[in-house]
Amino acid sequence: MRTTPLQFTTVSRSAEGPSSIHYAQIDYARIVKSGNSLAVVSVEEEDADTARQPITLPEGHVIIGLGHGASPTPAAEKILTEAAVRLISTVGDHSWKPEALPIESLVQSQAYIFASDELRDGATRRVYAARMGDAVAVDGATIGALHALDAEMIDETHQKFATRYGMRKRRERGGQDPTNVALDIAGDAVTAIAADVTRLLGMAPALSILDLESNYPEDLACTFAVTDMMPVGFRVGARKYSDQADVRAAIDEELHRARLVPRMIEQTVHLLDL
């Protein structure tokens, strides 16, 4: 297997310049020191110089997502730290806790929204418009009605997948059947990724937008419940793994492919747009 180069994409809504946020991710690969620069190499080919792909870091804020089996060598990590590159797990692995980017505008917007009923109303509608795909309907509904519609959509999606995959037991946190186990692991992983993104963006975890009794990582994770958490949990649960390590590995694979980190960054920037 030949190593795929790191391909950076701009995930912030800003134009060219130092405020742009650039993201790339790898799995089953190592970031290594190569001369005075960096390269990425498959873990299966770490000793094969010809398999190394050079890394060119873009200007601006740079984030590298690390999936299953991905990490930098100590020498490479030193270069990345000196270049102010942030490392984050794509699967909610607690081994990588990203340092906050030097972006003060997001946490300032978060505080303004938290303190203002009018601004929080607008931010809440942006979230529901993104989830439901109908900005016109969202603008014409009360926030209470939107909360109810969102809960109904989550319940309907759960029932759809339960029917498709033949889930016989009801949804129960801590349930020991394969589907409940997979849904719990997927939910915990998505929430962990959301917490890491919150930390990465320098935001205040305690300042919720959608539910003042919740917190921002939970707000963000819930935004991806229907599109990612439930589908992944049901698909992996249907495989009926007997070992939870296999369940976690399968969920890691799916969440890495889903590229939740850049999507959560984009969602946050959109949510906090004043």
Number of beta-strand segments: 8
Contiguous low-pLDDT stretches (5 residues minimum) are: none
If you consult CATH, what is the topology of the largest domain? Four Helix Bundle (Hemerythrin (Met), subunit A)
Q: Which radius of gyration do the C-alpha atoms yield? A: 20 Å
Strand pairing plus helix content: what structural class? alpha/beta
- Helices and strands, in order, run as EEEEEEEHEHHHHHHHHH
Q: Helix segment count?
A: 10
Instruction: State the helical fraction.
Output: 40-55%
Helix and strand topology:
Layout: E1 9-10, E2 21-26, E3 29-34, E4 37-42, E5 53-54, E6 61-66, E7 71-72, H1 74-82, E8 86-89, H2 104-115, H3 117-132, H4 135-139, H5 143-164, H6 178-200, H7 216-223, H8 225-237, H9 244-258, H10 260-271
Parallel strand pairs: 2-6, 3-7, 6-8
Antiparallel strand pairs: 1-2, 3-4, 4-5
Helix pairs in contact: 2-3, 5-8, 6-7, 6-8, 6-9, 6-10, 8-9
How would you describe the overall organization of this protein?
It is a single chain. The chain has 274 residues and is α/β, with parallel strands linked by helices. The chain folds into 2 domains: 9-89, CRISPR-associated endonuclease Cas1, N-terminal domain (Ribosomal Protein L15, Chain: K, domain 2), CATH 3.100.10.20; 104-271, Four Helix Bundle (Hemerythrin (Met), subunit A), CATH 1.20.120. It is 49% helix and 12% strand. It is built from 10 helices and 8 strands. The strands form 2 sheets. Strands 1-2-6-8 form a 4-stranded mixed β-sheet, covered by helices on one side. A 4-stranded mixed β-sheet has the order 5-4-3-7. Strand 3 (29-34) and strand 4 form a beta hairpin. The model has no long low-confidence stretch (mean pLDDT 87).
